[in-house]
Write a structure and sequence with these properties.
heterodimer; A: five-stranded mixed sheet; B: 683 residues; mainly beta; 55 strands; 5% helix; ribosome biogenesis (chain A); WD40_repeat_CS (chain A); WD repeat domain 75 (chain A); Beta-prop_WDR75_2nd (chain A); transcription (chain A)
Chain lengths: 811, 683
């Protein structure tokens, strides 16, 4: 058995899904997206992530269905390998080592056993030139295959995967780079180049952005930087080629896609409007506006029924904006992670379900999707301890104009189960707000919010009932304005009981009493401005910790008003676990981040880990666990109460898990292994399930080794479609236990009751989470095995003599 | 280059007339353009799109359609008449009443034997083409509703007619209608409005293409009478269609000012089944595109905004050549301004009147580039309305300002002007030989009037206070039948040069009253001629921008001209797309020649070296910034000034001040009626 209690850094999603085109499976039931170093498989009906295909060691740069086998998928990565997966089961079939970083992958049915890759033109990695090479995939039974037979097809291509596309039936390939479109005909082995002028007269930029080929006709659609779409025809002539121009987008066209039958052309760009052009009737277009964010990729399912748009804000799974300006926070009520979402929104992201709950519109203004516009952004947000109040700060900074700043306070409304705007304070400070925090005292009558600003003041805001207006409830107003020697306050922190407020003014920490607003003491440890302030919790609440810019972590004892201890560390982020005494410090050293978890009262760190990730960690949060973990290992005890999540510089959301936890997850994910695409005869179910059960019983955790994934898949999904299998499994066990000797009529009744159970389950779910209802519906459609006809079949099978079956199972 | 006091004249309210119809003769490469005022213009596409001939309009003649039959040109209009033109004498030859109400369209079969016209009363009338005339043959089956457009099948057996709400196909032999194609009306509010099939084209594979007022271009199968494809091109009307000779491309002109190209393309590479696919859109007009022609290499369009646009198809021409450049022809290629150099008077020619202006005066001095205070404002002395219904075709003002003459296709009128208390008297008795003139010119001492007449002959009339006498008729020896379009009498009164549309330039000795010499014929038509007052050298500028100097004394090209031809003109000079319309000389500096076209004026200093191919042609600004010795090294013969744009005339007055007559295109645009409403982005 593996060592118990080992702590691993686990990727918990959030990395960019939108760097590459999503791919639909040929039956339109799955959607595959390159996401960081793995490929995520989504179900199109439930919209949930089914599993990850893990194995690449660098960014996955392309996903492609294998033309000769629609159940397999190629993925390529910057690590120089192409991997072939069975995406329904998440099994790595083969790894082809190419040896050069790969930027995108293409294939067509016309070229059996050949894939086309974009690699740097020279073998050195830093080159700006790229070439398209054809790779003959060697026929070999081995898992790891070296594929070194490269032959260049086109030189000087774009690294943008949207700029190369195969034409009708793979007879030619079109590649756009800069101002030139190149079409290469494989049969004739002839390339045609069509250059455009840099600018047209009206100042539009003609640079190619993306290319799409019509599936039936010889028509190439190209998107351009000035928002034009050109439809090229007759491109097998040097001179008599012709194109027509479509113009709707006002900014660059970032994605183009023909529908499978070629009747429509879809285009998208920063306007976040999906435009559908009728092919050959281009004056007729349809729009799907307000998609939330700029469209980066469009994919169409092979049956043409589903369109997938990827957006620049990563909105398919929507975790992380490219710029997170608020801190990571936990919503105490829904236990969800809160951070910047769509522009002007806060998103609530359930970590348990790895799913976006909802977006809260903070700015409440129409977001205009255009580059170069300065718009309101949510820069700060804070919850109070009970989750009743949410404070947000939005700002808009135009070059010439003054800073616009709004502080908004939101009250949680039990009835609508959402936050309702209570108070808007426009221009709460004269300059940018540097920090904001709620008083965390749970028992205090009044709620208090402190904010510090670059204008040299810190303000305390208090909820006060308004006397003169009857109808309005209590609203927030300023209680105190404080300053210290004209210095700029950087951070503020309330002590756990709310009796002290610490505000740092550069290298000086001032401690105030919120009750009387007198300056109690000042603490200082020059040189170096204070970066972070943190009060200790529980037994350590007498300590105040601060990090300074001069690589110093200090711990003051507030009882003695003296420095308890200090150590030299370049701490980029310091945060306290609200449920324990523990504190986490992320230290940035030589491009890597180390983590130390310690108690302020103890000199020895509880846990330390070097090189947690590359780059600087600036956002992290302790997420309270729903149920306490009982870990005996000392090193993992700090994870018992809460889990630490952090964002890397690539916006990957990472966390720490213990081995025990992982095993538990693994076990639960085992039940998902049977995929719904496998034909589900009752026979298979009976046998397959049973055998698996046996395996699990006998081998326990060993079953993890059966999956060939090197790192082990951390499936974090529950219920969803597996509910069905569970159901069938229960049913089966019921049948076994009753020995299949009951009357047919009886079993039929049972069947029905089971069904009812299923329905009620679905209802229950929908009552708790509105989104779930969709899921349960989809569940039914996702499992074809349970159609009426098949249910009848199942029943018919039962009516037959089952005694042999029982015997088989017993044996 | 020297400094000049410039009279910047902007009070010539020249307003070109909208283009109504167009016909291209691919054999002779001549484009006939009909304007809304009834004027007809012939452009020679083989000779740099030069406007060779202008037939002035007539009140009440509104040309709706044009048709070439071989070398013959026919027009039909809403006055219900068919007119054939005499292109040698630049006048209508005869007019035939069709008796079917207003005529909307005219079309001839490809054999050139029959002419079909579509009338308001719903008849298609067939006319037989005889050598001298046309003769009514018969009516095709009469329809309800007017016939708007017609197109013959190339075989000559079928005619397609565009009507209100439908298209009819007639059998040309029996005269019966064989098919009736119903055209769908526009959607929405325009559902109740009849759709007008403005234009139709019958292709040899029995495809019919129609453009209608609902904004559709529709492709029909003419054999079965079924609709193949509808292309919605505009929200407004599709007014014109034109098909290329090889039927691989067609263009449609819309009310939005766009021209949409369709191409007959195989949908998949290397396959035979082709279809009409909408490809390019050209937007070169602000208003309706009323007329279109599809030449081998270009799309020619014209409409309400009065400009003729030649848009080369880049897949048919070599890129980055002169041929591949877009051309807009806005101004006529002949002079509408006559300047009396001695008196400082300007005569402006309009189709229906003449205006005589005195330029303003200023005695101020200023730095170069300054505008001087005006002491006396320019003044309109006379506005002379023409008599009769024919429009003015040419006019002239004598250098002393005392005489004024104009001509229509039917008569020449001569006036004597007194300036002490401005009065104008018509000279009543004119010689009989002076019936109509293509070009008029006074001698420098204002004692003679030269008028070009038929067959390139020039009539000389002597003028004095008492009477006007026919002196002589000069005839060239070549026997050319083409009209003279340029006349120039030399300063010393000895020479008269006359250029005709056959590119010939004849020089007559006025003392001997006989032909002195004929300048060797250059392949391109002369656009401006002048005789040097001192050296008697004839300078000719052609439509291909070539410049020749011909010594009348030696009867050979001068040394300078040979040098220029040997070295070749600067490529930028040759790339200009408007012809030089005036040449004049400076009395102060005999080495200077003043030329101008629409966008620049140029002083050629014959004493300076010619520009090398690599030097900058437009170097006035850079020269100014250079120090003196550098400047001499860099200066060359062509001194070009682009300060003044959209020039109609540049002339040097006696007092060495320069008159520049500008007509900004923006002013013309602002006088056009409002275009159709179009949604503009961000409005």
């Amino acid at each position: 058995m593996v060592e118990h209690g080992e702590i691993r850094v686990v990727h918990r999603g959030g990395s960019k899904l939108t760097s590459r085109d999503p791919v639909f499976s040929s039956d339109s039931r799955f959607l595959l997206c390159a996401s960081g170093e793995c490929v995520k498989v989504f179900s199109t009906s439930t919209e949930e992530c089914i599993h990850d295909l893990r194995g690449h060691t660098e960014l996955v740069t392309g996903v492609l269905l294998r033309p000769s086998n629609h159940l397999q998928v190629y993925s390529c990565s910057a690590d120089g390998t192409v991997r072939l997966w069975d995406f329904t089961d998440g099994i790595l079939i083969k790894t082809y080592v190419i040896g050069y970083p790969i930027y995108s992958i293409y294939a067509s049915a016309n070229h059996e056993g050949v894939i086309f890759l974009v690699t740097p033109a020279q073998s050195d990695k830093r080159s700006e030139m790229f070439q398209l090479v054809a790779v003959q995939l060697p026929q070999s039974g081995d898992q790891l295959v070296e594929a070194r037979e490269l032959s260049a097809v086109l030189s000087d291509v774009s690294s943008n995967p949207a700029a190369i596309v195969f034409g009708r039936g793979g007879e030619y390939i079109a590649s756009a780079n800069g101002l030139q479109l190149e079409v290469y005909f494989f049969k004739k082995q002839k390339a045609y180049r069509f250059p455009l002028k840099e600018d047209n007269k009206k100042g539009g930029k003609n640079t190619f952005m993306c290319v799409a080929c019509h599936p039936k006709d010889d028509c190439i659609a190209t998107g351009h930087e000035d928002g034009k779409i050109r439809l090229w025809r007759n491109f097998n002539h040097k001179k008599e080629y012709t194109y027509s121009t479509l113009h709707w987008h006002h900014s660059a066209v970032s994605s183009l896609c023909f529908t499978p039958e070629g009747t429509n052309l879809l285009s998208g760009g920063i306007e976040s409007v999906l435009v559908q052009w009728r092919y050959n009737q281009e004056s007729q277009r349809d729009f799907l506006p307000r998609l939330g964010a700029a469209i980066t990729h469009i994919a169409v399912s092979p049956d043409g029924a589903l369109f997938c748009t990827s957006h620049s804000d990563n909105s398919k799974e929507l975790t992380v904006d490219t710029v997170v300006r608020t801190d990571l926070m936990m919503d105490p009520r829904s236990k969800s992670l809160v951070l910047n979402g769509k522009p002007g929104h806060l998103q609530f992201y359930s970590l348990q379900r790895d799913k976006l709950l909802y977006n809260l519109d903070i700015v409440q203004q129409e977001y205009i999707h255009e580059s170069g516009l300065q718009q309101f952004e949510v820069v700060k947000a804070a919850f109070n301890a009970s989750g009743n109040w949410l404070a947000t700060v939005e700002e808009r900074k135009q070059k010439a104009a003054e800073l616009e700043l709004n502080l908004k306070l939101w009250a949680y409304d039990e009835q609508t189960q959402s936050f309702v705007l209570n108070t808007t304070i426009s221009a709460p400070h004269e300059a940018q707000i540097t920090a904001m925090c709620f008083c965390h005292a749970a028992d205090s009558q009044t709620t208090m919010l402190a904010s510090t600003s670059k204008d040299g003041h810190f303000k305390a805001w208090q909820l006060a009932a308004q006397a003169h207006t009857e109808d309005e409830g209590p609203s927030w107003s300023c209680d105190f304005v404080g300053a210290y020697h004209d210095l700029v306050p950087e951070c503020c922190c309330f002590s756990a009981d709310g009796s002290l407020l610490a505000v740092s003014f550069q290298e000086v920490v001032t401690v105030w009493s919120p009750a009387s607003w007198e300056l109690l003491t000042t603490l200082s440890q020059p040189p170096g401005a204070i970066r972070d302030l943190c009060f200790g919790r529980l037994s350590c609440s007498k300590y105040l910790l601060g990090t300074s810019a001069n690589n110093l972590l200090c711990c003051w004892n507030l009882l003695t008003c003296s420095l308890e201890w200090s150590t030299s560390m370049d701490v980029s982020l310091l945060l306290a676990d609200p449920l324990s005494e523990n504190m986490a410090a992320f230290c940035c050293q030589a491009g890597c981040t180390d983590l130390f978890v310690f108690k302020p009262s103890e000199p020895r760190p509880l846990f330390s880990r070097k090189e947690v990730c590359s780059g600087k960690v600036t956002r992290a949060v302790f997420a309270p666990r729903e149920e306490m973990l009982e870990s005996c290992e000392e090193s993992s005890q700090w994870l018992n109460h809460s889990q630490l999540y952090f964002l890397t510089q690539y916006m990957d959301l990472m966390t720490f898990t213990t081995k025990a936890e992982e095993d538990r997850l693994m076990a639960s994910s085992k039940q998902l292994v049977i995929d719904d695409s496998v034909a589900m005869t009752p026979f298979y179910l009976l046998l397959g399930k049973h055998r698996q059960q046996e395996n699990q019983d006998s081998l326990g955790g060993m079953s993890a080794e059966r999956t060939p994934l090197p790192q082990g898949s951390v499936a974090i999904r529950e219920v969803g479609s597996p509910a069905l299998f569970m159901l069938i499994y229960y049913f089966f066990s019921y049948m076994c236990s009753h020995g299949l000797r009951e009357e047919n009529k009886h079993t039929e009744e049972e069947m029905e009751s089971e069904k009812e159970e299923e329905d009620s389950e679905g209802e229950m779910e929908s009552s708790t989470r509105p989104k779930e209802s969709l899921e349960s519906e989809a569940t039914e459609s996702a499992a074809p095995a349970l159609t009426k006809a098949q249910a009848r079949e199942l029943r018919r099978v039962k009516k037959l003599d089952h005694s042999w079956l029982a015997g088989l199972l017993d044996s | 280059m020297g400094e000049f006091k410039v009279h910047r004249v902007r009070f010539f309210d020249y307003m070109p007339s909208a283009i109504r119809a167009m016909a291209f003769n691919s054999r002779t490469e001549r484009l006939a353009v009909a304007r809304a005022d009834g004027a007809l213009e012939i452009f020679n596409f083989a000779d740099h799109y030069f406007q060779e001939k202008v037939i002035p309009g007539q009140d009440g003649r509104a040309v709706e359609a044009l048709c070439w039959v071989g070398q013959r040109l026919f027009s039909a209009g809403l006055n219900g008449e068919i007119t054939e033109y005499d292109l040698e004498n630049m006048r209508p030859r005869y007019t035939v009443e069709a008796y079917g109400g207003p005529i909307w369209t005219i079309s001839s079969n490809s054999q050139g034997t029959l002419l079909a016209v579509g009338c308001e009363d719903g008849t298609v009338k067939m006319f037989e083409l005889l050598d001298e005339r046309i003769r009514f043959q018969r009516n095709l089956e009469r329809q309800k509703g007017r016939i708007i457009s017609l197109s013959w099948h190339p075989s000559g057996t079928l005619i397609a007619a565009g009507m209100m709400d439908m298209i009819r196909i007639f059998d040309a032999e029996t005269g019966h209608a064989t098919h009736r194609l119903l055209v769908e009306r526009g959607a929405g509010a325009s559902k109740s409005k009849e759709v007008v099939v403005w234009s139709i084209a019958f292709l040899s594979d029995h495809t019919i293409v129609s453009g209608d007022s609902a904004g559709k271009v529709q492709i029909w199968d003419g054999l079965t009478g079924t609709l193949v494809k509808t292309h919605l091109v505009t929200k407004w009307d599709v007014l014109a269609l034109a098909v290329s000779q090889d039927e691989s491309s067609l263009v449609a002109g819309t009310s939005e000012g766009t021209v949409v190209q369709f191409q007959f393309i195989a949908s998949t590479v290397d396959q035979q089944d082709k279809e009409w696919v909408r490809t390019r859109t050209f937007k070169n007009h602000s208003h309706d595109v009323r007329a279109l022609a599809h030449t081998e290499t270009a799309v020619v369009s014209g409409g309400m905004d009065t400009q003729l646009v030649v848009r080369p198809l880049l897949d048919k021409v070599e890129k980055n050549t002169q041929e591949s450049a877009l051309r807009k022809i806005a101004f006529p290629h002949r002079s509408l301004v006559c300047c009396a150099k001695k008196a400082g008077l300007l005569l402006f020619q309009f189709p229906d009147h003449l205006e005589l202006w005195r330029v303003g005066e200023s005695d101020g001095l200023g730095k170069p580039g300054d505008s001087l205070p005006v002491k006396r404002n320019p003044e309109k002395l006379i506005q002379l309305k023409r008599k009769g219904e024919d429009h003015i075709c040419c006019s002239a003002l004598s250098p002393c300002g005392g005489w004024l003459a104009y001509s229509t296709v039917s008569a020449v009128r001569l006036y004597r002007i007194q300036y002490n208390n401005i009065s104008i008297t018509k000279v009543s008795k004119l010689p009989k030989d002076l019936r109509s003139a293509h070009q008029l010119c006074f001698s420098s001492d204002s004692s003679k009037l030269f008028a070009s007449s038929s067959h390139s002959s020039v009539v000389i009339v002597s003028l004095n206070q008492l009477e006007c006498k026919h002196l002589h008729t000069l005839k060239p020896r070549s026997g050319s039948r083409q009209p003279v379009h340029l006349l120039f009498a030399s300063e010393d009164g000895k020479w008269l040069a006359a250029a005709n549309a056959d590119c010939e330039i004849h020089v007559y000795n006025l003392h001997k009253l006989k032909l002195h010499c004929t300048v060797p014929v250059h392949s391109s038509c002369p656009t401006a001629i002048a005789i040097h007052p001192v050296t008697s050298n004839l300078v000719v500028v052609h439509a291909d921008q070539q410049i020749f100097e011909y010594s009348l004394m030696q009867k050979e090209y001068t040394e300078w001209s040979r040098k220029l031809q040997k070295q070749g003109l600067h490529s930028l000079w040759l790339e200009r797309d408007t012809p030089v319309t005036h040449i004049s000389y400076s009395p102060k500096n005999p080495a200077h020649i003043f030329l101008h076209d629409m966008f620049m004026f140029c002083i050629i200093d014959q004493s300076l070296p010619l520009p090398e191919a690599k030097t900058m042609l437009y170097n006035q600004m850079t020269l100014r910034s250079l120090p003196e010795p550098e400047r001499i090294r860099h200066s060359h013969a062509f001194k070009i000034c682009k300060n003044f744009q959209h020039l109609l005339c540049v002339s040097l007055l006696e007092d060495h001040s320069l008159v520049v007559v500008e007509r900004p295109l923006l002013d013309i645009m602002s006088q056009l009626p409002a275009p159709v409403r179009q949604k503009k982005f961000a409005t």
